[in-house]
Each structure stands twice: as C-alpha cells, then as structure tokens.
Description:
The protein has one domain. Helix content is about 30%, strand content about 20%. The protein has six helices and seven strands; from the N terminus they run H-H-E-H-E-E-E-H-E-E-E-H-H. The protein has helices at about 1-5, 15-20, 35-40, 75-80, 110-120, 120-130, and strands at about 30, 50, 60, 70, 85-90, 95, 105.
Amino acid sequence: MRQALGVSAEPCRLHRCLASPRLEALRLFVTTNYDDLIERALEPRAPWVVVDRGKAGSVWCRGPDDTWEEIEAKNLRGAIKDLKRPIVLKLHGTLDSQDRDNDSFLITEEHYVDFLAARKAARFLRCWRTR
C-alpha cells in the first residue's frame, strides 16, 4: 500500500483554498483519503489529526507537536486542547509520510463492514455538535 499510495504530490488549489485564512471558521475536515495533502495545506494552522486505525473504542490523535497518541474515542474531546485549531478526521486510515509504523488502511470489505457497524464517525461528529 505504501508503494502504491506513496507518490509525490503537493496540495492542490482546492486544498489550499479550504485551508486558507479566509475560511478560518472551517475547523473540521473529514476525509477518506490516505494521503496527507489536507494536513500539509493546513500546516500554518497547526491542525489536529485524528485517525481511526481499526481498534475498537480508540483513535489515534496527532497534535501540533507531531506526536501520535492513542486515545479512547470517548475521551477525544478532552484530549484536543485547543479547539481553535482545525481537526482533520481521517475515517479510513492514513499513510504517515514520517513513520511507516503509523500507516493504517481500511481496505477490505471486512474492514468496511466493521467500520460501518461501529458507526465511529457518527459518534465522533455527535460529540462535536454539542459544543
């Protein structure tokens, strides 16, 4: 997967537009892409990145300090300290350009069935609506 997805690319005009200071009020970016293009476009705004790696009840979160931390999904809101920074929610995993050990991919039909059965995205989004 890393070889197939690890192609060199730069954020396009759309990525840069979504990340621009003019859209500063836009703080939640939900993506099914494995690449890091939206994160790179958002770098000046120091985004939080949240990735589902397929472990029931937990997600991985990377803050502005670039350190990954496994967090119980129910505690994610408390783990994200600065809600003024954008959040990138990667529903189907990610290709981590810095460390291949952090790669995770939702690929097979079984992965998708498990993901949909857990309804993780719905729970995540529901916790942010109550703000």
